[in-house]
Each structure stands twice: as structure tokens, then as C-alpha cells.
Known about the structure:
With 737 residues, the protein is of the alpha+beta class. Helices cover 75% and strands 6% of the residues. The protein is built from 17 helices and seven strands. The protein has a five-stranded mixed sheet with strand order 2-4-5-7-6, covered by helices on one side. Strands 1-3 form a two-stranded antiparallel sheet. The N and C termini lie far apart (106 Å). 22% of the residues are buried.
Amino acid sequence: MKPWLQRIVDTWSRISTQLYLGIGAAVVLTVAASLVGWVFFSRVGEVQSRVTNESVPALATAFAIAQGGTALATAAPRLVSAPSDAEFDRVSGTVLQDRKTFSDRLDALSVDDPQARRVTAWGRALDDNIAAVQYAVRARFALEAERDQLRDEIAVAYRKLTGLLVPAIDDQLFYAVTGYHTLGEPPAPSDEHLSEEVFTRYRILEELHSMAAVYNQIVSNVFNVRDETRLEPLRERLDAVERDVRRRLDNLGEGQLKDNLVKSYRGLRELGTGERGSLVLRAQEFGVLKRQRALLLQNRALANELLFETGRLVDTAQSSARDATRASSEAITIGQRILLVLSLLSVIGAVLIGWLFIGRVLVRRIALLSSRMRRMADGDLEEAVEVSGRDEISEMSSALEVFRRHALEVQRLNLVEKLAEELQSKNQQLEDTMGNLEAAQDQIVMREKLAALGELTAGVAHEIRNPLNFIKNYAESSQELMDEMMEEFQAVVGEPDNDNEEQKEGLEMIQDIREDLKGNLDIIRHHGQRADSIVQSMLLMGRGSGDRFPTNVNTLLDEHARLAYHSARATDTDFQMEISQDLDPDMVEVEVVPQDLGRVFLNMVSNACYATNEKRRRVQEARKAGEETEAYQPLLRISTRKLDDEVEVRMRDNGVGIPPEVLDKIFNPFFTTKPTDKGTGLGLALSNDIVREHGGRIEVDTEAGSFTEMTVYIPLVTTASRVEQETDGADAAAGGG
């Protein structure tokens, strides 16, 4: 179509042209009414445009900043609680992305609005706090790595020092006893190797060895200190030990051994009290932990302030939107009044316009828009407002759509407030979880202390075996020397004279003395071997074993019951307990892992010692307070019985018993009724696992304040043995077939 013809068609299709040609005289009023409507509806469009372009983006930005602040507020505890470097790096990557998104949202705020500037300031402060938390946690991991390296260096320095002292002590003792200083050379005179100077040197070396162990234990315990105030007493103890060591070294005399010991002690001292020693490193760790706690508190305060300022920013945006809505409503009201006046002046034209234009074009769309508004008033905000066209009605529908979205944003704001309340609840739960975590950490630290004590016990057992070997060897050597001495004596004296009564009595006395000495040496060797077997049991218990072999349950129970009792006696010298035994004489050997089953007996007897000692203390405290109490004597009854297909082991004490409310929890890991420094809550859990691995079970009978009886049932043929027997039987049957 040609351009000029297209222009004619467009002009004809316009409403104003149709009204002008159809109405004639009423065209002026119609045009005036249209102009009035156009002006006021343009005003409404401007107001709604301001709402769309200013208020709604401000609300969206405020909500986004609130969400970002919440994410950063929860990021700080996750960073602090990261268990490893890998987990920390993973969390840090997520936090870095959250920080970048949060910073971009802060940059989107207007710098001219004072409220927006305050939100930006609090947001930047929160972002800086997260960065400081990341730096503090990374510093903590670095200090932990340095602590592990320092612990290894301390262990190496201590082994080097004991490597100098132990051979020197052995050589000095051998020289003092035998007079041999160097093999292959004649021994020194007795007045020389039995002199006070020789034994003084041996005593100094023994004291230096004991002080080295004490110093190493104090330096190692620095890493287990949970309170910063305990570092200074440890430093004073280290200084006292150093002074004692220097005095012993000064009395040792000059020589290569002294120079080597001075050098080794100096190295160990640097690892304990030096510039990068355990005390300084532990103090730095306390500083980093204190910094982390301060940053977490600051993080929580900054998040609360940011949430408050964001809420104020949302209130400001809402107020602006309400003002715009009010202005739009006023413009619509004024326009409607003017149109009403103009309509009254053109009744005839209005009828025609109402039938041709308003009725067929406008009213239908307005009715659709009105119906949608009523549904929105009833609460239906999910369906979008859609009205075709490009005139004022479509703009009104767009404005109504904006109002609908604004209402949804208001609902979301209410949801944000609800989420804020839930966040506070989650923070409280997080604090409770942190408290539980600290308690679990205390139990883990106690478990590490017990593990270190086990390593120390193994080391002490190794050290005890050296003097036991000396006792055994020298007892055997003394018996041989006694026999050689009697042979030499009879060779010198010859046959006794029967007429000389005095000579006969002397020879008989010598024989009696010889028999007594041999009997004493046999006793020494027997008890030395018994002590060596106890040490061997301690070492095997520390190493553990997975091998099963026939074991006498009576012997295993007796040894570990006595070992547990003497261990309790070593902890409290006032503790005395009677152990009553009723062991089945017809007991057979059972295929078990003796080290594991010994742990079960050791743990249960140790618990019995603790329970009876605790009751003894309560009785003593009641007597001191003037209360009348019955006489109490700790008692443990242990018995064994061979049943039809299993072995029964009973251990009954008259201690404090177990409260009924915790009876179902005693086999749970980390559950204990003892104080934190007395138990880890793992003994009965491990014992239960060991007995179940053997195919057995544990039964408990107790009464609070009266007694506790633990009964262990072990099958005569354990699960592993039964499988082997069935396999062997199947192989034999297959071979026979």
C-alpha cells in the first residue's frame, strides 16, 4: 500500500476521527475528554514508572543485602569449626563467592541516600570481619602444624638424651658391682669400684635420667593445657627442674659425657622455654583462639546491625511506594471528575460513544481488570495481570501488576522477619552445639592424655625390664659362683676329719648357709621372672593383637585384676580393697585374643576400684561431718564358672552402684558418670565391642549405693573357631566323598 493511502487508513481508524465524523458537534467535548484522560493517565504512568524504577529495585536490593548478610553471619562459625585445612579451603571458597556477591549488592546502593550509606558501612564492616576470621583460622592451622612439628622435635631430643644416659647408667652400675670398666681388662680393686664416689656418680646419673623424664613430661603437657593461666606454673616447674639439672651436671665432673649431656639438655630446654618453644607456641595459640572468639561476637553484632539498617531501608522504600500510590490515586480521581462533567455535557454523544467505543472496547477490558482487582483484594496474588493493548488501560494493568508484585514483596518481607526469628533460634542452637562440641573436645583431649599415659607406661615397662634382666642374670651368676666357691672350698679343705667336731660343725654350717643362699637366689629369680611376665603383659596390652589362641581365663582374670588394683593403689595410696576369688578349678582353655579380653577385665576391675574408693571417700566425709555411718571395707568378688557351652566370669563390688536412669547408656561411646579428668566414656563401649567380637555378651546387675555386678559370658567355641571347624569338617567330608 502506498504511504499516502496508509496515512489515510490510519487516520480513519483513529478513535478521534471516528468520533469526529460520527458525532459531529460533540467532537470537541470528546477530544477535550480524551486530552484530560491522557494528561492524568500520563501522570499515573509517571508515578508508576517511579515506583517500578526506584522503589521496587530498592526493595529488591535491600532484601538481597539482608540475605547476603545472613549468609556471611553464618559463615564465621563454619570457618571457625572447620576440622582440617581441606575443609577450611572448601568453606573459604564458598564464603569468598558469598562475599563477592554481597559486595556487588552493596555497590548497587545509592551513595546519595544516608540510609543506604549506613547499610553500606555496616556491610563493609561485616565483610572485613569475615576476612579477619579467615585470617585468624588460617593462623590457627599454621600454629597447629608448628605444634605437631615441635612435639616431634621434643620426642627426638628426649630420645637422644636418654640414649646418652641409659648406657652411662648401665656402665656405671656394672663397674660399681663388678669392678670391670672395660671388657678384656682386669677389674679395679674393690676399694676403688665400691667407693662412695662411684656410687655418687651412679646416683647423679639416675637423678639426671629421672629429671629428663620429668622435664619431657612437663614440656609435652604444655600442649594439653586448656587454660592460659596454667602456662606460668609450668614455666616455673621447668625452671626448677633446669636448676636441679645444672646442679647435678656441675657435680658430675668434667668429661665428654658431661659435655654431651649439657648439649642435649640445652636442646631440650630450647624446645620447652625458648623463643619458639612449647610455652611460647601455646601462648600464641591461646591468643589466636581469643581473637577468634572476639571476631565471632563482633560478627554477630555486625549482622544484627546490618539487619536493622536493612529493615530501615526497606521501610523507606515502602514509604516511597505508598506516596507514589497515593499520588496516582489522586490523579485518577481528579480525571474521573472532569470526565464526568464533560460526559454530562454530551449525553447524546456519550450514548453513541458508549455503544460503539466504550461498550465494545473499553468496558470489556476494564471489567476484566476490575475482576482481577477484586480477586487480588480477596488475596489471589499468584496470577499475573495481563490486559492487551497499548493505551491507558494497559498501563493501569501494568500498574496493578506492579502493585501485585509489591504485595508479594511485602509478604516476602514478613517472611524475612520470620526467617530472622528462626535465625536467632538457630544461633541459640548453634551456641548449644558449640557447648557440646567443647565438652566432646574435653573428652577427646582426655583420651589423648590416656593414650600418652599408655605410651609412657610402655616406656616405663621397657625401662623396668633392664633392672629385671640384671636381677635374673646376677641371681643365676651368683648361684654358679656359689657352686664354684663350694667346689674350691672343698678342694682346699679336703675331706673332713671325723674326729674334729668343730670342723664338722663348721662345714655343716657352711652347707646350711649355702642352701639358704641358693634358696634366696631362687626366690629372687622366681619373683624377677614374675615381674618380667607382668611387664610383658603390659607391653602386649599396649600393642594389642588380633591372634586367638587357647588361654586360661582364670590366670588372665587374676593377673589383670591384680594389675588394676595396684594401678588404683598407685593413684591413691590410702585405697585398700579386699579381692575374694572363687575360680573354677575345672576351667578349660578358651580360644580368645588374650590382650583384648584382658582389657575387658582390666577396665571392669578398674571401674570397681573407682566405685569402691568413691564410696569409701563419701563414708569418710560423712564421718568428718558428724554423721553416723556403718563401717565400710571395699570388697571385690571375682568368680569363674564353666557352663555347658560357655564360660561365665562375674565381678561384683560393693561400691556406689549405677543410677537406674543412666543404666541404658553405660555402653554408649563417650558416656561416663566420672569427672572429665577421671574417664573418657570409652572403656565399657570398647569392652562391649570386644566381648561381642568373641561371640559373647555382658550382663549388668546393680543397685545404686549398694553394689554393681558385671557378668561376662564367653562361648567355649568362639565365632572364628566355629567357622574354622565347620570349614575343616566340610573339607574332610569333600575329601572322603
